[in-house]
Design brief:
The chain is an alpha+beta fold and about 775 residues long. It folds into 5 domains: about 90 residues, Helix Hairpins; about 230 residues, D-amino Acid Aminotransferase, Chain A, domain 1 (2-Layer Sandwich), CATH 3.30.470; about 90 residues, OB fold (Dihydrolipoamide Acetyltransferase, E2P) (Beta Barrel), CATH 2.40.50; about 150 residues, no CATH class; about 70 residues, Rossmann fold (3-Layer(aba) Sandwich), CATH 3.40.50.10190. It has 28 helices and 24 strands. A hairpin with a 2-residue loop joins strand 4 and strand 5. Helix 1 packs parallel to helix 2 and helix 21 crosses helix 23.
């Protein structure tokens, strides 16, 4: 269990607050409770100053609320330990230096918080208990959006604005009169107002103004703001009113302080009066006659939150009857007649404006949601990950349903969530608000960067571009791989040099072939490589010579250097030993192309069948759908495919990568341009011998008891045999140990000779 100190520290430094990590107050000794209250006091004081004075929060609202609740719980369990500087008795933070101070004629209060429907019900029940009213007595409440901005008090005398003050610590605020007068929605003069009127409300910044401000700040190399609330607070609290005037701020009025005459008999009436005097009041304010109506209005506002154009973080309920408000009065820092029903800090609903496909450095196609901006957990969110095509379609990669099978479409209203500092994600879709013209998202099967096929291999939840070296999104990474130690290993052309030449406009390296004509292109330049920063005659000459030295390359190193998915050093060596020459390798890959397509179609059909079966509540029929995909495949292509996947260490995943890479027109052209400048060394076949297995294709299956599979393979190849991983018509001999399964059955069906390990050792003379 995490200690209380750790939980508080996590909150201070941006980690998640897990309230279950705090010890039950009943289990603490007075000394332990006192120590924890001391730590909480320091943490809350730091958070208050950062938020209210510095406009630079160090923890989220949710984390702050959690610390406040913990502090209150400890004070309730140990009332004698309540500190003089208790956060329960504080509102805001002291006014900052640099501004004049204003003493509020009436203290500016805070609000108690509700975090659940049950809290709202208890709020109503508590008022009834305090007033001695029965459960069925009619009570009316106003419900209005809780603006996420900076509290401001405006004092009018004789209808003229004489001062404006921030909340500060509730008793003393900062004099921001000159700045407040630059806000267009704050009247300088009122007609028909009480002689003394303190109007209270919230200064805020709209989303579009926030985006424009941050764009200007970024262009000027100045600080950008994390969210509109910080931007509004920072703009209002400028020592230079000219800066405030240059930033578009707005003001909603929702309360009052000192009055020389009442505004109305009800909260709703007083708000209407403020509107008539020329103040902006929130049009979403509604009168409710029950907690059910209050919660329903809360849910409606939450659903429309992203479309308001400004940030809110909850809904405020206030008892409408002002006479009853006066009877209820105040606690030390909050009124008994009002409460703020907060939204979950890490959740928000917004509209999905579009879906972009980003291509990563490994070729993965990643869908990204483009959202109407909404503040989630104190951060303005406009993008969210959509994981992969299955997630968009409402299913997991195994075909099971997620979100009840609800797919995600452009135009949908979606629920966005953040946890800590992770990338925002989409959790759910509101089908009731889906536009009538919304259509299922058609995930691309070609790369948006280079146009190459984007394939999804069996067992992989991600679709990947096969463009490789010609794909701009992958090019630099692929070039780094190409010049790596196990590939071409060109002296003087490492990762940094690759990045340099890739970005160079006059002497670029954008594909491997460019490396081998670099010297020829340099001769045509007015400014030679030798005269550039970082180079000289010797370094340029050495680089060109190192490139020349690598024109002759062994087949296995060339295969590996191409950076084909799944083709590592071992697979490249297996392919080189099997085919010996480049031409033989390419011919085999080309011949297997139709069968590779059928293999991919069979995989896709299986995924679709599993999803359909899950929807219908029946067993998936895998074999029929896979067999259907293979119908009509030319026998020669089938044989080429069987031979390719039958090479020891290769298999279907490597074979698909090879075929899809070589069938891309642009990628194939890039490879051909490279090979045209090389002398590819054939990998010599195992030396001819008079052994009985020379030239034979051998497959090992089952458990070998007298040698490892690697030893058996090496020994067979040393005797001139080819070792394959699967049985095909080209197999000459199957060596079957205990546990041999389908390979032995297939060999028997094809009439292939099958022997055990002892017979094998006897055959090769190792018995």
């Amino acid at each position: 269990m995490a200690s209380s100190e750790n939980a508080g520290e996590a909150a201070l430094h941006g980690g998640g607050v897990d309230e279950s990590g705090w010890a039950d107050p009943a289990t603490l000794s007075p000394e332990e409770a006192s120590q924890e209250l001391s730590r909480l006091a320091a943490a809350l004081e730091q958070a208050n100053i950062a938020y209210h004075t510095d406009d630079a929060p160090v923890i989220s609202d949710a984390q702050y609320d959690a610390l406040r609740r913990r502090n209150a719980a400890l004070e309730e369990a140990f009332p004698a330990l309540k500190r003089e500087d208790s956060a329960s008795d504080k509102v805001g933070a002291p006014a900052a230096d640099g501004f004049g101070k204003i003493i509020h004629a009436q203290r500016m209060m805070s609000l108690a918080n509700a975090f659940s429907d049950a809290d709202v019900t208890e709020f109503d029940a508590g008022i009834r208990r305090y007033l001695g009213l029965p459960d069925d007595a009619p009570l009316f409440y106003t419900a209005e959006p809780k603006i996420d901005g900076l509290s401001l008090s405006l004092r009018y005398e004789g209808g003229v604005l004489v001062q404006a003050a921030t909340r500060g610590d509730g008793a003393v605020g900062e004099n921001v009169t000159a700045n407040a007068k630059t806000i267009a929605s704050i009247p300088h003069k009122l007609s028909g107002a009480p002689d003394i009127l303190e109007v209270r409300g919230e200064v805020y910044m709209r989303h579009d103004d926030f985006a424009a401000l941050n764009a200007r700040q970024e262009q000027a190399g100045a600080k950008v703001f994390a969210n509109p609330r910080n931007a509004a607070a920072g703009s209002l609290r400028q020592l230079d009113p000219g800066i405030t005037a240059a930033r578009t701020l707005h003001f909603f009025a929702y309360a009052w302080g000192e009055l020389s005459a009442p505004l109305a008999d009800t909260q709703s009436g007083a708000i209407k009066r403020l509107g008539a005097l020329g103040f902006d009041v929130n049009p979403l304010t509604q009168i409710c006659d029950s907690t059910a109506q209050m919660i329903a209005h809360y849910n409606r506002i939450a659903a429309d939150r992203a479309s308001l154009g400004y940030d809110i973080d909850g809904v405020v309920y206030k008892l409408d009857d002002l006479a009853l408000q006066r009877r209820l009065g105040f606690r030390s820092t909050t009124p008994r007649w009002a409460i703020a029903h907060k939204f979950p800090a890490e959740l928000a609903w917004t509209q999905l404006d579009g879906i972009d496909i980003q291509v990563g450095r490994t070729g993965a196609l990643s869908p990204v949601a483009r959202l109407a901006p909404v503040t989630v957990g104190g951060v303005v969110v406009s993008n969210a990950t959509l994981h992969n095509e299955d997630y968009i379609a409402g299913r997991a990669s195994d075909g099971s349903l997620i979100r009840g099978g609800r797919d995600i479409r452009i135009g949908d209203w979606v629920e966005v969530y953040r946890a800590g500092d992770v990338i925002p994600k989409i959790r759910d879709v509101d089908l009731a608000r889906r536009p009538s013209n919304a259509v299922p998202f058609d995930f691309p099967v070609t790369c948006p960067e280079c146009g190459s096929d984007a394939v999804r291999e069996d067992g992989d939840s991600v679709r990947r571009c096969t463009g490789g070296l010609i794909c701009p999104a992958q090019a630099v990474e692929k070039l780094r791989h190409f010049v790596g130690r196990a590939a071409f290993d060109i002296e003087g052309l490492g990762a940094k040099q690759v990045e340099y030449f890739f970005a160079d406009a006059s002497l670029p390296i954008r594909e491997p072939a460019d490396i081998f004509n670099l010297q020829a292109r340099d001769r045509a330049q007015l400014t030679k490589l030798a005269n550039r920063d970082g180079f000289g005659d010797t370094s340029a000459r050495n680089l060109f010579q190192a490139i020349e030295d690598k024109r002759e390359i062994p087949l296995n190193r060339l295969i590996f250097a191409l950076g084909i998915r799944h083709v590592g050093e071992v697979a490249a060596a297996d392919l080189a030993r099997h085919f010996s020459t480049w031409d033989a390798l390419v011919a085999s890959i080309d011949a297997a192309r139709p069968a590779a397509r059928a293999h991919l179609d069979a995989d896709a059909a299986e995924v679709a069948e599993r999803a359909a079966a899950a929807d219908a509540g029946r067993r998936a029929r895998i074999k029929p759908v896979r067999d259907a995909a293979w119908q009509g495949v030319d026998p020669a292509a089938q044989a080429a495919w069987d031979a390719l996947v039958g090479i020891e260490g290769i298999g279907a995943s490597v074979a698909v990568s090879l075929v899809t890479t070589f069938q891309q027109e642009a990628e194939r052209a890039s490879i051909d341009r490279l090979v045209a400048q090389l002398q590819v060394q054939a990998v010599a076949a195992p030396p001819a011998s008079d052994s009985p297995v020379a030239g034979k294709t051998v497959v090992f299956t089952g458990t070998l008891e007298k040698m490892t599979r690697a030893e058996a393979k090496a020994r067979a190849e040393a005797l001139g045999a080819k070792v394959a991983g699967s049985v095909s018509a080209k197999t000459d001999l199957l060596v079957a140990g205990p546990g041999a399964g389908s390979k032995a059955t297939k060999a028997a069906d094809l009439g292939i000779k099958v022997i055990d390990e002892d017979d094998w050792l006897s055959l090769i003379g190792d018995a």
